[in-house]
Amino acid sequence: MRLQSVSLCAIWLVVLATAAPPTAESRSAGRARAFDTFRLPNSTVPTHYSLYLDTDLHVGIFEYTGNVQIRINVLEATDQIVLHNTRSVLTQLILRNSANLVLPVKDVDYDEEKEFLVITTSSILTPNSGSYTLDIDFTNSIDRNDQAGFYRSSYEDDQGITRYLGLTQFESVDARTSFPCYDEPGIKTTYSIRIASGTNYHVRSNAPMLGIQLLPDGKKLTTFATTPRMQTYLVAWLVSDFVYEREILKEPQLAIATWAKPASSHLLTYSVDASMKFIRAMEEYFGEHYSMNKLDNVAIKDSDYAAGAMENWGLVTYRETSIYFDPDTQGESQQVGVVTIVGHEFTHQFFGNLLAPKWWSYLWLNEGFARLYQYYVGSISHPELNLRERFLTGPLQRAYTQDALVNVRPMTYYTETRAGISNLFDRIAYDKSASVLRMFSYAFGELTFQKGLRYYVQQNKLSGVVEESNLFAALEQAVKEDAVLPLSMSMHDIFRSWSNQAGVPEVEVRRDGDEFYFSQKRYFAEPQENPSPSSWWIPISFTTPSNTQFETRVAFWMPPDVSEVAYTIPLAAGEIVEFNSQSTGYYRLNYEPTLLNQLIERLQEDHRSIEPAARARLIDDTLHIAYRTGDNYEAVFELLTYLRQEADYVPWMVAYENFKELQTLLRHDETASTLMQTFIAQLATPLLERHGVSRRMGESSFDEELRLIAIEMACSASKSCKDIARAAGRRSDSYHDPAEVALQCVTLRQLGTDERQSFVAQLMHALSTEQDSFSRKYIEEVLSCSGKDNAVVLDILMRRLPMLSETDRATELRRLMLYSDVSAEELIQLIQAGLSSRKLNTSPSMLAMTLQDLAKYITEPAEANLLLSVTSQYTPFMAGEIEQQLAANRRWIERNVEPLKTVLGQRVTI
After folding, report:
1. Residue 283: HSE in the Cβ half-sphere, 13 Å Cα cutoff
2. In whole angstroms, what is the distance from residue 302 CA to residue 137 CA?
3. Which candidate in 345, 611, 704, 780 is catalytic?
4. Do 186 and 233 meet the contact criterion of CB atoms below 8 Å apart?
């Protein structure tokens, strides 16, 4: 409120010069018009921004001044201009007409809840009366700790001197915190940006640089070309002394560069090369050239970048460990990470940037495409990385888990508030949407789907603003042209059954001779008394040894609101049929017992006769259906025993994720936990024998990750594995290889108190002196296995957790819960203390996802109550979902622990 009062007092100096003296009432910001929505009235729209900023980062000053001139068109008669502003202190506000004459301003108010700046004019502004210009001077600061808006980061140079930089992170609604603007995704216009900085600093922004002008006092002014029409959340700039590596592509010319602190200059080559390959593959795939002639990547210190990565048009930002690659110490797994994160953000240059969502309801039109094509275009640009298989073990698995919740939202979902919008950046927007898009790509054939997406781009790039119906119309045109959809069916109806309806289908299959009967219902993770009557248009695919025509293409569409559908599949003697054999359809399969037993027998006889994707899907579906009912574990564990012969990455990764879930939920029952760990170790021991404990030259990322799985699972209950790990772990002083990290974690868990504390002290010393970001990351991972021997360890973990990727965060929490001495209660208390002292800096959405991940592992009442207390205080919008997860955990224990112990007791000898 203090900033608001100063801002208004300054503005009145201008208002008094151009209008009658305002009343005392009109001076109060609290008097602002009561708006009934968080949406802007949009009676006026911007047509161009000229933005100027004056920074002094080079001398360690974090305040900045600015001026924004917003050219405005009036759409309907009004006496108010309403836009967004927060944090900026306005020192002057002038309104001019198209003749450059100053117009009187009657009132300037601020709606704090809506974050609206409300400017009331003395006369009515009318359409078709020419453009107006809103000219605002303001001051602000980058000395903020929420890692949003325009904020500061830093690094230490070779001399130990702290060097500061300023960067932006505006998505979703934080452009308004850095300069006054119309901060909504469907409002697109152009920007001309000028930024003053120290002469020894660089300034980068969305558009190419036009020129540099020297200023007094050791400063310079950098001017940039006008941007394409874009929304405010994509506006970006960087003020730093970073260095770069750059390559130039021809026909058309495109400069690709990666910027980073000077000490990391040797880690940039792979990201530049990956960027060049991906952008060209993407342009070819979608039949559209990238809009500008330069595209910069920027590497930001992990602890200073909660967003992870951001697709700013022409100036993409990432965490350092996401974009760096050291060929001397890192393998293919890190290359996978670089290609997929670059691919995600570059796909956004079309889906999200060129085509912007009309409102946040359609966020999935951004994130679903980016998530899918980081793998699928990445498989074209980098075929050696086998990225399409990784979609099955990553996004698809996460989507199934999230979509099984009772109160999960649909893909298209309306909300207006800051917290509500932040909450939309979830697994539904990213992973489910990508899985649904992928399903349709296979159902219609990739070439037809690709054609539809090209239509989508070409038909909408001029307006640049889209909603889901635009996508459906373009796909409809393609599928009808290629005759891959019956004329009686509508793409709009089919796709809306997925985008406007929550949940994932469960398809039940039974057989009578050559007739197969299918029914559908919504899959829930646990039994429901009154399940919702959901149904979808489901593309059913299948394969048999003699018929692979419908292995990925749709054999028939299972319609909604029909109790059962029959389909004839002629089978020769001894043949079995696999449905959804490549996991292309987004649905769970529930086979009748006879069909399931036939598949299990085939796996035991020759697992390679069934595709890896089908083996993975069978493991996951069968396990989760058993979790829901608490029965049929005899068949489940008979199925799982085939894993002793399994060598493929996809089935093992899916099994591994399920085993992690089982271990965490069983950890409070010592008998069940020990039985489960022993069973898992027996399955994984052949895998460890196959891959060993040390990385081999030239091995694939799949081999690297299978080794990590084997070490973790085989060593959980195998004494011989623990002995191997202890010998290897104590010998190692390497902090680059993930396998070494896994071995050192096993070692730490076996050491006595004195040895353990000595080892932790050694690691702490290494952490205090290590500058390499990857080495620091791995040291911190090892420390997380050491438990509560050192309070500093816990502090490191809690500063690190919110900065991790979704997958890494879940892994880190699991490691804490299973393998350290830190209890869930202590962990939650530490989070609570960090939040109350403001030492734990994270955005509401990142905190919500961390608490959501933690909730999966909580089964004890005291732990649950404490977590709910923290959630209610800091992320109340997540309280209902987390409470539901905690209750579901308790019911899962009641249904499953005793049946699991019974079956495991018959198979495992402790």
Report:
1. 14
2. 33
3. 345
4. no
